[in-house]
């Protein structure tokens, strides 16, 4: 029995996840679903953003369908109890080291980007972000230093094996796409980046069909505004990937449309799938949220964890077809509810 | 005698700096100028990107007019000998902890940005970036770890006094402008950022006329694409500032137009002034580069190190007037040479 853990989370998480699940049930009947609270909902249910039972369920599952987390009520708690902590723990506990974030423009939404149409025409980037290392997980803390001053510190670090496994995902992804891999670092300043660059460079010979380039992160942030279509696949560390993937998604225009996958293997293994948008507390419970990002995350689930490319493409095509009919939720200037948008995608399947 | 150190550097550095100096001589006659090599030029002259005599000159000077550094011939040298090392050393040796980077659109160039005109209309941001701390200057190195793997590490850190002095610049800047200060960090993950946020927050009471907000760096990178005009002054650390300021400059459209200042005091003290563009080796020596960023850097020099706001505004108005006449270098689709563009600004003075 294939088990899908449904961690809908906070805010609009439950609403959009419900639509994603509905589509998944239609495309791949017979999967087993189990729900568990996470984030603010986890904290409310049992005093911790990632209750033990939720983590257990995620570990036992074949894939995690994740909604969104974040709740302003819990922002002042200590870091370990805030909703976001659940996300970081899930990533590291499940070993989900590879975050895959496509930034694509559906033709029907070409005018949504704040970038000029000719600048984003054909935009189709995948950002491969390392997700279980870097300054996120290095030793961190606060202390009173020798001068008696309060000081905060976080250690940035990567070793060659961590770099090699994420770069492998980048190369493999590029091989299946346009064959262009851009590795982003800050090797002119950081030793971590120097090791990163050396390791990635040393792997290029194994991928003769992939053209590898390197870019400093500041330049990458600039190029993403100047000429984003120059990119095919970008591979980078946890921190730079956090920044660049959010930036790229905004170039694509509509944050309500973009899915993500967090993986530990290219396919056939447990992964976590979530829309890149947040919990949007301001519109939670109103049935206004765009379910497309969650639905497209379900497509990634089917592709990677269930190894079923055909069904993944079927879902993606249904979303594109739904948009082509003019169906739009409020974020895209339309007036369909979350459920109604789900209905249109369902009919398009 | 007021001494200006002219460190023209590599590539197009000398060409654009010559025009900046010419304008400076016209606006503020009687300053003393001394030139010295830096970057690749420093390495060629004496085997080090920051020759001792150059550093001495900079230290003795009232202000440093800096061109650009970077030369592909020296990219493979060890880090300490690469052109960029000169920049990092100058910043730390002179204690230039505050990097001021305006991102503004001249009305005549409103259509140059890749963002839609309505998105950048009225764009006028100043990024205040900390420049002598953070992961740039923390302990760094490579080692073979316990598992026998090569590993790189860089320590991110800030203490409260470093944060307070840069935040002061941010608050003072906001007070003189629209009164909005956005502090950018990653406090949901980093302890360094948590201290940053606490210190900045604790200062807000001293600036009742400034509205302080906080934003995570990933969201800031997104908002800079989504709605950049929401920002007035942004204050942030060295690494996030590196990324966001490059991104912001590209939102402004023409990297050939944007100046910067690196300061250790708000005014009346030594500072370093440089265009944000690089050395552009591909067009070096051809007299094609846009001198406006260098000229506007001279305006910042006059404003901050010479405490002469009137002359600064005179230079800035001359650049705007030159653009209004339709004068354009190649980067803006025109055919004026560097020198000719300088001539037009000169006449507009
Ligand atoms: C919520 C936060 C900890 C997280 C991150 O920084 O990784 C988020 O920004 C993301 O990108 O998933
Ligand atoms: C050249 C490099 C070391 C430098 C930096 O990262 O600070 C540059 O990108 C800048 O912003 O001035």
UniProtKB/TrEMBL annotation, chains A, B:
Its EC number is 1.1.1.85. It is found in: Cytoplasm. The record marks 136, 186 as: Important for catalysis. Binds 1 Mg(2+) or Mn(2+) ion per subunit. Mg(2+) binds at residues 218, 242, 246. Pathway: Amino-acid biosynthesis; L-leucine biosynthesis; L-leucine from 3-methyl-2-oxobutanoate: step 3/4. Keywords: Amino-acid biosynthesis, Branched-chain amino acid biosynthesis, Cytoplasm, Leucine biosynthesis, Magnesium, Manganese, Metal-binding, NAD, Oxidoreductase. One of its GO terms (molecular function) is 3-isopropylmalate dehydrogenase activity. Belongs to the isocitrate and isopropylmalate dehydrogenases family. LeuB type 1 subfamily. Catalyzes the oxidation of 3-carboxy-2-hydroxy-4-methylpentanoate (3-isopropylmalate) to 3-carboxy-4-methyl-2-oxopentanoate. The product decarboxylates to 4-methyl-2 oxopentanoate. This is 3-isopropylmalate dehydrogenase. It comes from Sphingomonas rustica.
């Amino acid at each position: 029995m294939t088990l899908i853990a449904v961690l809908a989370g906070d805010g609009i998480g439950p609403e959009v996840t419900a639509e994603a699940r509905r589509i998944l049930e239609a495309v791949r009947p017979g999967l087993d679903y189990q729900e568990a609270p996470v984030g603010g909902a986890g904290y409310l249910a049992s005093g911790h953003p990632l209750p033990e039972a939720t983590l257990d369920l995620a570990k036992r599952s074949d894939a995690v369908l994740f909604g969104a987390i974040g709740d302003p009520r819990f922002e002042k708690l200590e870091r370990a109890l805030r909703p976001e902590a659940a996300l970081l723990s899930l990533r590291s506990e499940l070993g989900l080291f590879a975050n895959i974030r496509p930034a694509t423009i559906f033709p029907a939404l070409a005018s949504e980007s704040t970038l000029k149409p000719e600048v984003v025409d054909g935009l189709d980037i995948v950002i491969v972000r390392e997700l279980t290392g870097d300054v996120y997980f290095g030793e961190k803390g606060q202390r009173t230093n020798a001068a008696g001053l309060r000081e905060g510190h976080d250690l940035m670090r990567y070793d060659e094996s961590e770099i090699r496994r994420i770069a492998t995902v980048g190369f493999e992804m590029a091989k299946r796409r346009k064959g262009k891999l851009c590795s982003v670092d800050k090797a002119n300043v950081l030793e971590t980046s120097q090791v990163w660059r050396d390791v990635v460079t040393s792997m290029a010979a194994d991928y003769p069909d992939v053209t590898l380039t390197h870019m400093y992160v500041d330049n990458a942030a600039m190029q993403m505004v100047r000429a984003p279509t120059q990119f095919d696949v970008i591979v980078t560390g946890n921190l730079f990937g956090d920044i660049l993937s959010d930036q790229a998604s905004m170039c694509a225009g509509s944050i309500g449309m973009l899915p993500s996958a967090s993986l530990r293997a290219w396919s056939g293994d447990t992964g976590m799938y979530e829309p890149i948008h947040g919990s949007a507390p301001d519109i939670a419970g109103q049935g206004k949220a765009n379910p497309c990002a969650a639905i497209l995350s379900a497509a990634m689930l089917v592709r990677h964890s269930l190894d079923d490319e055909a069904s993944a493409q079927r879902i993606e095509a249904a979303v594109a077809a739904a948009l082509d009919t003019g169906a739009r939720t409020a974020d895209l200037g339309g007036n369909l509810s979350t459920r109604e948008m789900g209905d249109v995608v369902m009919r398009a399947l």
